[in-house]
Amino acid sequence: MKRFSNNALSFSRTLAQQRRCYTQPSSGVHSPHASAVQSSKALTSPYYNQSTSMPAQTRQALGLRGYHPPAVETLDHQQTRALQFLRAKTTALDKYIFLAQLRNSNLRLFYKLVNDQFEEVAPIIYTPTVGEACVEYSNIYPFLAPPGSPDGLYVTINDLPNLKEIIRSYCAKAGLDAPEITVISDGSRILGLGDLGVNGIGIPIGKLQLYVGAAGIDPRKTLPIILDFGTNNEKYLDDPLYLGLKQNRPNDEKFYASMDQVMSSIYEAFPDILVQFEDFQSDHAFGLLEKYQNKVLCFNDDIQGTGSVILSGFMNAIKLAEKKSGVLPQDHRFVFFGAGSSAIGVGKQLQAYFMNHYGLSEDQSKKMIYYVDSKGLITQDRGDKLAQHKVYFARNDNNEDQFKSLAQVLDYVKPTALIGLSAQGQAFTPDHLKQMATLNQHPIVFPLSNPMTNAECTFEQAMINTDERVIFASGTAFPSFVSKKTGQSVTAGQGNNMYIFPGLGLGCLCSKATRVSDGMIYAAAQGLANTLSPAELEQGHIYPALTRIREVSAKVAAAVTVQAVKEKLATEPRVLQLLGQPNPESAALEYVHEQMWDVNQDDHFITAAASS
């Protein structure tokens, strides 16, 4: 390998000469001559099908004259038509179905829409619409893709002995050479909707669409997997149209043994793949993370991704509260309404931040954090048996007093911040919000539950009941609020995981990390917090605009890449030199941009016959 020079520009040039294969077409795509196989690929492959934008000479070369109307359109013309059709749909679910059909027939046009219309399309392909799509998935599945078009890998508990063969067969038929990232769920805790069984496939599919659209992961390198281990949801067990296994879920012993088979088969087939665990019920989410995080390249988005994105928002919210109200960082008190895997993950990230950034001890930082579940404030002497993941944050300083309602907890704790991860819509009542506004000049309120129907309050409710003084972020998109004081439109901050996991995953792939460390998760949060523009800082935003999502993801990926190098977890030779650069962050960002798949890059979509 060439020796790198001492400046980022030379480093970038060297990388350009040695670009990794990751953004190039898979090795099986190019063949030395035109063939019927290539013609079929151009017509039936969602990736290579260009439809009406296929040039006349390509149609001629592939023997496809007469297969399309004579007009040859640009990708922008195709996008105009698709947008008109999309916007003519009257329901969010109809829009979801149309976009799924488009993704499974003309993938390039689909991602052109995602890239150019991200703010409009993201809420359709992911939250909040994906929640409704998952609930209805057995009903809409037959209408989402052409027959035989793989849209996700369905693995039942009965398939495990043959899983390696199933994975290889699926990847071959789906045109996947060597998947680099997979999102896996068992459907047991989908968003705030509970056990949806096999219908939860919509989550892995949706997450991977965001990896592509937000972070430039090559879609041919992605693998969505739903593990159908049964369901305990009686609604689906009794539904004749439910498409999953109609049996109850296994006990813990069989669950973990089955997951061992799944993980072994995946890593035997693809040793370097990144696994993202998604929407497992809380105990299993923590159990899987504890079991695998130090053995293989994996992370849990509900625990670590949520923790990271909310930590990033709090990094900026804490600065804003100090600037506006004079509240010192160490004087904050956080009340979490909800104590599942996501909530505990956020709390642990917050605790680590106060320890690392402000020098607080473990006990000092832990005492800043309070949890409320369905039985009230979580304390060690409440009298009930606590789930294992709740024990660490259980209070022992309550003097045997118990606080059953959220109002009682707010009065007792007098928090500066109220965070909702309960999946209970409207749990933050006007009285709760007014109570927060009485306690704080600028209260921090984060209703983070998804989908929108499960959000603890709306942006409008938070603004009205705090006299427009709230520092706000939600887990789902809310409409802007027109200030009654100034007449100006105020945008709601959105603490959505899409700000973190695409960049985190891209950073892992770029660095070829051997595992995902806590330091890399923290670096992702810090990287996100640093992406606010001067204008966004001036306007009091705590998250960047979604219109800049690809640049935001690139900066998060660069921060993760640098941290992986620092911790000696990176194995990609071209990034191991980063720390020797005068500005490793800048060099890493240039490198990351080099790796990002681009829907506008024509040579990613040319079949061998067309280019010969």
TrEMBL record:
Keywords per UniProt: Metal-binding, Oxidoreductase
Q: According to its UniProt record, which cofactors does this protein need?
A: Mn(2+); Mg(2+)
Give GO MF terms, alphabetically.
malate dehydrogenase (decarboxylating) (NAD+) activity; metal ion binding; NAD binding
Sequence ranges assigned to domain Malic enzyme N-terminal in this UniProt record = 103-293
Regions crossing the membrane: none
Q: Which family does it belong to?
A: Belongs to the malic enzymes family.
Instruction: Quote the NCBIfam families the UniProt record gives.
Output: PRK13529.1
Q: What is this protein called?
A: Malic enzyme
Q: Which organism is it from?
A: Hesseltinella vesiculosa
